[in-house]
Amino acid sequence: NDFHKRVYFMILNSKPKIYLFNVFLGLLIFFVLVIFRLPNFLNPQPLTSDEAFQASQILSLMNGDGFFFYFDGERYAGIFYGLTAIPFFWIFGVGTLAYKLPGTLFYALNILSTYYLVKKIQPTAALTVVLLMIFSSPVVLAISTHNWPLGLTCFLGNLIFLNFLKIKETGGSLLRPVFFLGFFMGFSIYTYTYSILYIGTIAILFVL
Questions:
Q1: What is the rounded distance in angstroms from the CA atom of residue 43 to the CA atom of residue 45?
Q2: 75 by DSSP, 3-state: which?
Q3: In whole angstroms, what is the distance from residue 175 CA to residue 157 CA?
Q4: Is the pLDDT of residue 1 over 50?
Q5: Can you tell me whether residue 11 is helix, strand or coil?
Q6: Are residues 191 and 149 in contact, defined by beta-carbon separation less than 8 angstroms?
Q7: Using an 8 Å Cβ cutoff, are 46 and 25 in contact?
Q8: Contact at 8 Å (CB) between 151 and 107?
Q9: pLDDT tens profile 67-113
Q10: What DSSP letter does each residue of 113-125 carry, written as one string?
Q11: Residue 124 to residue 121: CA distance in whole angstroms
Q12: Which of 19, 110, 128, 192 could be a cystine partner for 149, CB 3.0 to 4.6 Å?
């Protein structure tokens, strides 16, 4: 046990290394999730009407149309999660698979951030929660192959709660978590307006 702690300290004894380690973990989870979803990706279902509508606007943006912040007629959904499909368009070409992959990437980030959140609340349950999220039900598996704002919003919600807990732990003495709490709140609302529910929950927790 002491040996493992020493190895962990040597590997992750600086913030850049910690960030890189988290990037590695996030990508590892992403690749595992993709493998589990190969049948869905090898024979992808057509894009939903919302996905097709939004993907067409992202493609228009790629082809030189004027920049915009919200999808046409959808002031409740920012375009960031649609923009994340662009690198996949470059790698795999324009198609259903490329537009759907960001949904699985956001789910991977959601799993990683959930691990850290549960580790703060109930450390002994953190790994179990991660395994349950990776080996998920068919419904969750299907949902996580769609590029909807839900996946990104859940990830941002976890970041909001992590920064909130950091502020509670430090008594608000550190400016960094305060800044990121406000940033992620604003970005979450921009991504999907209904994420205001997270903000309301945080407000109630502050009062309590």
A1: 7
A2: strand
A3: 19
A4: no
A5: helix
A6: yes
A7: no
A8: yes
A9: 999 998 888 889 999 999 999 999 999 999 999 999 999 999 999 99
A10: HHHHHHHHH-GGG
A11: 9
A12: 192
Rounded Cα–Cα distance for residues 126 and 119 (Å): 5
Distance (Å, whole) CA 118 – CA 30: 19
Rounded to an integer, what distance in angstroms lies between the CA atom of residue 177 and that of residue 49?
38
Using CA of residue 103, residue 33, residue 46, residue 83, what is the dihedral sign?
positive
pLDDT value at residue 112: 95
Q: How many residues does the chain have?
A: 208
Average pLDDT of the chain, as a whole number = 87
Which stretches of 48-137 are DSSP H helices? 49-62, 80-83, 86-92, 96-121, 126-134
State the pTM of this model: 0.88
- 187 CB-side CA count, 13 A: 17
Q: How many whole angstroms separate alpha carbon 127 and alpha carbon 37? A: 21
Calculate the CA dihedral of residues 15, 127, 119, 25 and round it to 10 degrees: 20
Element (H, E) at 4: helix 2-11
H-helix or E-strand spanning residue 76: strand 74-78
